[in-house]
Amino acid sequence: MPLDDEAVAEIYREHGPMLRRVVWRATSDANRVEDIVQEVILRVWKQAPEADNLRAYLITTARHLIVDQHRAAGRRPQQAQLVDVAETDSALDRALDQVLVEEALGRLQSNHREIVRYLYYERLTVAETSVRVGVPEGTVKSRAYYAVRNLRDILDEMGVTR
Amino acid sequence: MTTGPDDLHALLGAYVLGGLSDDDHRAFSEHLRSCRQCQTDMGQVSGLPRLLDLAGPEGGPHLTEAPVAVPAPLLTDHDDERVTTLLAEVGRRRRRRRTWLSVVAAAAAVLIFAGGAWLGPLLLTPATPTLPTTHVAAAAVAGSQVRIDIALVTRGWGTQLDIDCEDMPTDGELALWVIDRGGKATTAASWRATTTGYSRVTGATALRPNEIQALEVRTGTGRVLAAART
């Protein structure tokens, strides 16, 4: 039994903005974003999945739609003939994972996010980060611990399992 | 800075992200060899650096101060408009499904009728479907545009009422009333109006289909929107 209108609208309001960001960043095609996002929600409406993890389900559905459209475009005669579908798929998968990782970092609590930024991306030491942020080293360590745990949870929730 | 044994578990984060002093790094490496919990945790998070690398050398838009280059139409808040578009499409697909279903139902009815005419004389007891269902289209009263289809499904406990309505009021409460042969009316379902005017709900009554004289859909204030006699 498909979902009722209220349920569909609620899913759309809650997850639409995230889906739009993800699809836009993965396709760089503003014209297709809303179409893909609406199609994702329509599939959820039709299938009414009993998914424990709706976010992962939505993202997986979006991924399939993007990959399918990408393949369909590759089959059009006016486009390049020598497209290696497996190669472009894996490039697309990487692009999607990139977007999802960026999205996950965005969802991290800001004081955890800055720890990831200094320790990982800027290669600062715990001691340097402690000075930069203005908290004791022990706090930097415990924030790093929770940042890593939470980031893993967020990625799991988005269906990024590797 | 050195770390006491109680804090060793917490070093996992900075161990994965980098930045531990040599002493802390050594201390955690040793601890990891003997701590089951940290080994399990490590198994879960050791893949993170590879994923973090996907976000580029600076970790992507949320970590840099540079604004994200998302086209304006995607950022502005057109949610209500988009929800309306989406629900219109839901409605269109729902109607398509229903049309298809009613076509199949009509075809099945023809088959049963033709089969019955042909086999009828040969069979003393015609097979009865497991869930006899009568469809009633409730006629909209004057001044009302609603379209309502009610399926009466015979159940052991009474009658299940599957109500499909379109072009209904978009706010307030709605209710299905059943009126028995004696003229007594009882509520068999009540629901809240939806913004699209479409709703599909199921009600129940202890009455058997042949005991129901009429069905009425009314607003919360008691105004009758549509009525059907069975």
| CATH topology grouping of the domain at 1-83 in chain A | Rna Polymerase Sigma Factor, Chain: A
Ends distance of chain A:
33 Å
Q: Give, in spatial order, the strands making up the sheet with the most strands of chain B.
A: 5-4-7-8-1-2-3-6
Unreliable stretches of chain A (pLDDT < 50, length at least 5) are 76-85
Query: What's the total helix number of chain A?
Result: 7
- Beta-strand percentage range of chain A: under 5%
How would you sum up the global shape of chain A? Answer: elongated
What is the level 1 CATH name of the domain at 1-83 in chain A? Mainly Alpha
Gross CATH architecture of the largest domain in chain B: Sandwich
Count the strands of chain B? 8
Order of helices and strands of chain A: HHHHHHH
Strand pairing plus helix content of chain B: what structural class? alpha+beta
Oligomer: heterodimer
Task: Give a written overview of the molecule.
- Chain A has a domain of 83 residues: Rna Polymerase Sigma Factor, Chain: A (Orthogonal Bundle), CATH 1.10.1740.
- Helix content of chain A is 78%, strand content 0%.
- Chain A is built from seven helices and no strands.
- The relative contact order of chain A is 0.11.
- With 230 residues, chain B is an alpha+beta fold.
- The longest helix of chain B is centred in the middle third of the chain and has 41 residues.
- Chain B is elongated and about 90 Å long.
- The N terminus of chain B is likely disordered.
